[in-house]
Structures are given as structure tokens and as C-alpha cells.
Amino acid sequence: MNTAVASNHHGGATDTFESAMKKIPAAVVFSHPVHWLAFGGGAGLAPFAPGTFGTLVGIPFVLLMGGLSLPLYLLLTAVLFAVGVWLCDRSAAELGVHDHPGIVWDEIVGYLVTMAAVPLQWQWLLIGFVLFRLFDIVKPWPIRWLDRRIGGGFGIMVDDLLAGLFALLVVQLLLQIYSF
Asked: What is the dihedral of CA 3, 137, 112, 49, to 10 degrees?
């Protein structure tokens, strides 16, 4: 099922973000469990800032997982990352668009990384959210470097993993300085 031919910087056809978004109908996303999960239950179909909407889907995951011990939280996050490598790879391949903007499973997992060992208070949820989105959008070195050089599902996931780690470091530093 190749319903779209577009790509970002990973090679192939070159369509704009907007045209890539228009080429994946909601019916396609909702008709296949792989696409539905990769698109964050449909959050990736948002007409603007799908990554931000995808990160919002991560908040209930953080709240549900927040009561787990840190080792169990990290293990579950690692499993969700591994599942995401397969899920994003398969969805991107079937859609014919590497790292389609609507694929937001990577943002969900990246936010989970950001929120490891962070208090479940609204202030810290917000700070983690903003920092993760900042690192995911700006993509400082080596995030952008990895994003441009690694393809497939791992390539889709790894830049958000690193953005999550950068945001986690800043949140942990802020936790040491401030306590809400």
C-alpha cells in the first residue's frame, strides 16, 4: 500500500511537509493498526505541529508509568523504543514516506525518556514537554547529524531518543536547582 511518495532529507522524492501530510488520508491511518500506533492514535494527523500533538499523547503514558520503579520504567521505555523501531519502519515503508511528520511514536517515547525519574507534578510535566519539544525541533549536534545519516525505523526513533536524553539532563539539572 504505497499511498504517498514523499521524503524528507533521507533521499527519494522531495515533497514539502504540507504535501506529505495531505497524501496520507485519515482513513489509511485508522484502517491499519501499525499506522494507527505510529501516528499516535491519530494525533499525527493534526493539521499543524503533529510532533507536538504526538508528544501530548506521551503525557498519559508518563502518568500511567509514573508509579513504576525506575528500573521498570526504563525497561518499559526501552521496550516501547524497540517496538517503535519496528513500528515506524513498517509504517514509513508502507506509506512510502521516510519519517513522515505524522509518525509520532518517536515523540511519545522521546517524552518518556525526558520524564524518567521526574516528579509527576504539572510544572515538571510542562517543563519536560517544552524542553523535549525544543531539543526535538532545534536538533542540536549530534541530534541533527544522526537524523540526517541514519535511516529506517531506528533513524526515525534515535533522534527523538537523543532529544529526550538532552531534555532529561536539563530537567534533572533544574530539579537539583529548584524544587516546586
From this structure: -50
pLDDT tens readout for residues 10-35: 333 334 444 444 467 777 888 889 99
Residues of the chain by 3-state class (helix, strand, coil), percent to 5: 70, 0, 30
Count of CA atoms in the C-beta half-sphere (13 A) of 41 = 9
**Domain ranges across the chain:** 17-177
Cell numbers at residue 99, please?
519519517
Alpha-carbon distance 123 to 137, whole Å?
21
Task: Report DSSP state, residue 42.
Answer: G
Contact 83, 135 (CB under 8 A): no
Q: For residue range 56-89, list pLDDT tens digits in order.
A: 999 999 999 999 999 999 999 999 999 999 999 9
